[in-house]
């Protein structure tokens, strides 16, 4: 099963990557921009595998660029306490 097949696994995966980036000194601004880029990629290139991913994709596609940045920042906040830390 792929990490993106299950939303909880996906959040854990993102949390691990976030902690890794922070541990390597990557700034919050850089993390935010990366989250935005990932959101763009996922919304256009990856088929939603579950209801949560479909909702996020639909919200992303309905949002303007500023709102997409807000969604990306919220996803970062959501996964801050996820993963193995």
Q: What does it look like?
A:
- It comes from Gracilibacillus ureilyticus.
- InterPro entries: DUF3243, Uncharacterised_YmfJ, YmfJ/YflH_sf.
- Pfam families: DUF3243 (PF11588).
- The protein is mostly helical and 85 residues long.
- The protein has a domain at 27-85.
- The chain is 73% helix and 0% strand.
- It is built from four helices and no strands.
- The chain has helices at 7-23, 28-45, 51-62, 65-79.
- Helix 2 (28-45) crosses helix 3 and helix 2 (28-45) crosses helix 4 (65-79).
- The longest helix has 18 residues, at 28-45.
- The protein starts with 6 loop residues before the first helix and ends in a 6-residue tail after the last helix.
- The mean pLDDT is 86.
Descriptive key words:
single chain, 73% helix, 85 residues, mainly alpha
Provide the gyration radius in Å: 12 Å
Share of helix, binned: over 70%
Beta-strand fraction estimate:
under 5%
The low-pLDDT segments are none
The total of helices stands at: 4
Largest sheet: none
Structural class by helix and strand composition: mainly alpha
Order of helices and strands: HHHH
Distance between the termini: 22 Å
- Overall 3D shape: globular
InterPro entries: DUF3243, Uncharacterised_YmfJ, YmfJ/YflH_sf
Protein name: DUF3243 domain-containing protein
């Amino acid at each position: 099963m792929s990490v993106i097949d299950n939303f909880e696994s996906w959040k854990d995966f993102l949390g691990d990557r976030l902690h890794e980036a922070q541990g390597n000194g990557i700034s919050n601004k850089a993390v935010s921009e990366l989250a935005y880029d990932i959101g763009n990629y996922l919304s256009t290139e990856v088929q939603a595998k579950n209801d949560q991913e479909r909702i996020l994709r639909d919200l992303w596609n309905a949002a303007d660029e500023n709102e997409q940045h807000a969604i990306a920042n919220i996803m970062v906040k959501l996964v801050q306490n996820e993963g193995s830390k």
